[in-house]
Design goal:
Family (chain B): Belongs to the HypE family.
Strand content of chain A: 15-25%
Number of strands of chain A: 13
Structural class of chain B: alpha+beta
Radius of gyration of chain B: 21 Å
Order of helices and strands of chain B: HHHHEEEEHEHEEEHHEHEHEHEEE
Radius of gyration of chain A: 21 Å
CATH superfamily of the largest domain in chain B: PurM-like C-terminal domain
Protein name (chain B): Hydrogenase expression/formation protein HypE
Shape of chain A: globular
CATH topology of chain A: Rossmann fold
Number of helices of chain B: 11
Structural class of chain A: alpha/beta
Bound molecules: iron/sulfur cluster
Oligomer: heterodimer
CATH topology of the largest domain in chain B: Phosphoribosyl-aminoimidazole Synthetase, Chain A, domain 2
Distance between the termini of chain A: 26 Å
Mean pLDDT of chain B: 88
InterPro entries (chain B): HypE, PurM-like_C_dom, PurM-like_C_sf, PurM-like_N, PurM-like_N_sf
Helix content of chain A: 25-40%
Protein name (chain A): Hydrogenase formation protein HypD
Low-confidence stretches of chain A: 371-375
CATH architecture of the largest domain in chain B: Alpha-Beta Complex
Organism (chain B): Acrocarpospora phusangensis
Mean pLDDT of chain A: 90
Largest interface: A-B, 69 and 56 residues
CATH architecture of chain A: 3-Layer(aba) Sandwich
Strand content of chain B: 15-25%
Largest sheet of chain A: 5 strands, parallel
Order of helices and strands of chain A: HHEHEHEHEHEHEHEHHEHEHEEEEHHHH
Low-confidence stretches of chain B: none
Chain lengths: 375, 366
């Protein structure tokens, strides 16, 4: 794992940390949002905050695919999964997400045929070997995972498979960022841009963030040094009085994105007029659905779903956490009623959710730690 | 208490208050909220712990059981015996480096060994699915016999049940074992104290990753074999050489789960150095790909030992002399504070918690 170790070098991290400290104007506070849940995970998993000066605060954004799925959609998926002819297939992260009536794991324990897959192609395999069953794939994720879902539908169509469909919950990142920028309680100085999504959409779509809102954004990789370096690039921009879109993750992210992947998405899917995001409410043109031409592969067209909007539990403050307004521990039920074993909100479920990351990795006071005199 | 700790206790920040509240909530007796058993209850993490304590311990309550060690220490006619049992449901049944047969023998031998006992006799129970090939059954029993011979134990009693096609996964094996405790021991989490060293006996995570790859669900190929082995000799060598405070084999739930159980039961902190944890590059690579943490991946021939800090180097030396302990290393220390938590100093230079596992480790999606 040389490739990885290169980006986890503690010596380089120390040097970057001191450069970061130098760039901070005395007395000024900086708040940056890492949009992507993958970044949140890296930050906590490697203890990256230990390198940041007090003046720099990271807040966690909406880029966690599982976190933004609203309760109503989970219930709809369960209604499909409970049909005797259906095999529901889903990524592992999704299994514990609570809907109004429990999670996939609960439904599975109660007899529904729900199987965990690593890719939509696995779901297709299941469809081939179970011709008498209806296989439904729970499509979730941003532009990162949408192309593989779309590819799978094309493959199913080419093979003439008639027992495969997708329950499409794919969302798009830009409207979510825009919603956050437009929300009145937002006090951000810049963004750490989502690396994986950007491999598909490129860096151009973020230009309005710098242009219209005057905030810098740096597309960042997922190793801890990538993130430190991106923070350094953001601070550099602020020190120079610039607000631009920059690409730290050039080893993976092409400026113009991946044309082929975007074409595949738009061949199979189109924007929904609006879609509900957990905690953020309805955001217009923020999610994808299957095109009319692929209705045969659209689970929403093939099965009756309740389609009922289910209000989030009263105690849940996921919306505030997803917008970066509250730190996970500031939610009233964090760690007591809402834990990874018994999640109330979605941010406690996925390893990329801010609440789960903080609970699993960051739940100790650093002051007490210093006392333990670590060498 | 130091001046600073007193200051923290007197004026905790808002975040610290929340953290204190959480620790209190965690210390409460676990309650089962689910109405049905889910797969998480079998994953070895927090859900398993809850199920065991809220259902089984609650029903069977007795001192030998309540220590929740790998085996129970019982007095038989004045002699001290260790008694243990374990069921094996691995899929696939045959995998690189072993099969369900040697796994079942080694696992039970190891449970006895880490209690300090000399393994003597095993029982073997089989639940077979209608249609299961006799040839496969022979293969399994042959490797059980070979494993038993290697471990110097005899399989002296057994049982067979056949269930209808569809109600079992081919073959399940349950082994129970007894061993005799013929040494004086201070083993037990309560003897764990600040200053102790934490040792693992070899590279971790190899069994778990081998199984995941052997299932063929991941498009990965790797030259990796299960670490399944009987570790009783290695354990005996260690017990002969140094004062050992705690021993546990790191099976389901991995090293992280063992460390958490110890930290919680002993009321101490355990601080682990990530860079000191022995992990083969190939295991690390597979874990990176799957978004798993090798600390949580199962081993079948590795144990965690907590020894008096001043004997740490001797302990590692003794272990490394044995082929099964070649990769042994000191991975961390027991500290007083923060009690009940396992902290990891990451290779990157930061610090984080290593918590109990919540469910099965689910590979992340992107
Ligand atoms: S603690 Fe639970 S309810 Fe509160 S924001 Fe986090 S996930 Fe949502």
């Amino acid at each position: 794992m040389r490739f990885v170790d290169e980006y986890r070098d503690a010596e380089k991290a120390k040097r970057l940390a001191s450069q970061i400290r130098e760039l901070c104007e005395p007395g000024r506070k900086y708040t940056f949002m890492e949009v992507c849940g993958g970044h949140t995970h890296t930050i906590y998993k490697h203890g990256l905050e230990d390198y940041l000066p007090e003046a720099v605060t990271l807040v966690h954004g909406p880029g966690c695919p599982v976190c933004v799925i609203p309760m109503g959609r989970v219930d709809d998926a369960m209604a499909i999964a409970r049909r005797p002819e259906v095999i529901m297939t889903s990524f592992g992260d999704m299994m514990r997400v609570p809907g109004g009536k429990g999670s996939f794991l609960d439904a599975k324990a109660a007899g529904a045929d729900i199987r965990m897959v690593y890719s939509p192609l696995d779901a297709l395999k299941i469809a081939r070997t179970n011709p008498d069953r209806m296989v439904v794939f729970m499509g979730i994720g941003f532009e990162t995972t949408a192309p593989s879902t779309a590819m799978t539908v094309l493959r199913a169509a080419a093979e003439g498979l008639t027992n495969f469909s997708v329950f499409c919950n794919h969302v798009t990142i830009i409207p979510a960022i825009k919603a956050i920028l437009d929300s009145p309680d937002q006090r951000l100085d810049g963004f750490i841009g989502p690396g994986h999504v950007s491999t598909v959409i490129g860096c151009r779509p973020y230009e309005f963030i710098a242009g219209t809102y005057g905030k810098p954004l740096v597309c960042a990789g997922f190793e801890p040094l990538d993130i430190l370096q991106s923070i350094h690039m953001l601070l550099r921009q602020l020190a120079d009085g610039r607000a631009e879109v920059e690409n730290q993750y050039t080893r993976v992210v092409p400026w113009d994105g991946n044309r082929r992947a975007l074409e595949v998405i738009s061949q199979v899917m189109e924007l929904r007029p609006y879609f509900e995001w957990r905690g953020l409410g309805f955001i217009s043109r923020s999610a994808l659905r299957m095109r009319e031409a692929y209705a045969a592969y659209d689970a929403e067209a093939r099965f009756d779903v309740p389609g009922v909007r289910v209000a989030d539990p009263l105690a849940c403050q996921c919306g505030e956490v997803l917008k970066g307004v509250l730190k996970p521990w500031e939610c009233k039920v964090f760690g007591t009623a809402c834990t990874p074993e018994t999640p109330i909100g979605t941010c406690m479920v996925s390893s990329e959710g801010a609440c789960a990351a903080y609970y699993n990795f960051g739940r100790f006071t650093r002051r007490r730690l210093e006392e333990t005199s670590l060498t | 208490m130091t001046a600073e700790q007193t200051a923290v206790a007197a004026h905790p920040s808002r975040e610290e208050q929340v953290l204190l509240r959480i620790e209190k909530a965690r210390a409460r007796k676990p309650k089962i909220r689910e109405e049905r058993v889910t797969l998480a209850h079998g994953a070895g993490g927090k859900a398993t712990q809850t199920l065991v304590e809220a259902v089984f311990v609650d029903a069977f309550r007795n001192p030998a059981l309540e220590s929740l060690d790998d085996g129970a220490l019982v007095d038989v006619n004045g002699g001290r015996m260790v008694f243990t049992t374990d069921s094996y449901v691995v899929s696939p049944l045959f995998f690189p480096g072993g099969d369900i047969g040697d796994l079942a023998v080694n696992g039970t031998v190891n449970d006895l060994a880490v209690c300090g006992a000399r393994p003597l006799y095993l029982s073997a129970g089989f639940i077979l699915e209608e249609g299961f090939p006799i040839a496969d059954l022979r293969r399994i029993t042959a490797s059980m016999a070979a494993a038993a011979a290697r471990a110097g134990v005899q399989i002296v009693t057994g049982d067979t049940k056949v269930v209808q096609r569809g109600s079992g996964d081919g073959c399940y094996v349950t082994t129970s074992g007894v061993g005799v405790l013929d040494r004086e021991l201070t083993l037990g989490v309560l003897s764990v104290r600040p200053g102790d060293a934490v040792i693992v006996s070899g590279p971790i995570g190899e069994h778990g990753i081998t199984i995941m790859i052997a299932r063929g669900e991941l498009d990965i190929e790797a030259d990796l074999t299960s670490d399944t082995a009987a570790i009783h000799e290695l354990v005996a060598a260690l017990l002969d050489a140094v004062p050992v405070h705690m021993l546990r084999d790191a099976t389901r739930g991995g090293v992280a789960t063992v460390l958490n159980e110890v930290a919680q039961a002993a009321g101490t902190a355990i601080v682990v150095e990530e860079s000191a944890v022995p992990v083969r590059p190939i295991v690390n690579g597979a874990c990176e790909l799957l978004g798993l943490d090798p600390l949580y991946v199962a081993c079948e021939g590795r144990f965690v030992a907590v020894v008096d800090g001043s004997y740490a180097d001797t302990a590692v030396e003794v272990l490394r002399r044995h082929p099964l302990g070649e990769g042994a290393a000191v991975v961390g220390r027991v500290e007083a504070d923060p009690a009940g938590l396992v902290l990891l100093k990451t290779t990157f230079g930061g610090t984080r918690i290593v918590d109990m596992l919540v469910g099965d480790p689910l590979p992340r999606i992107c």
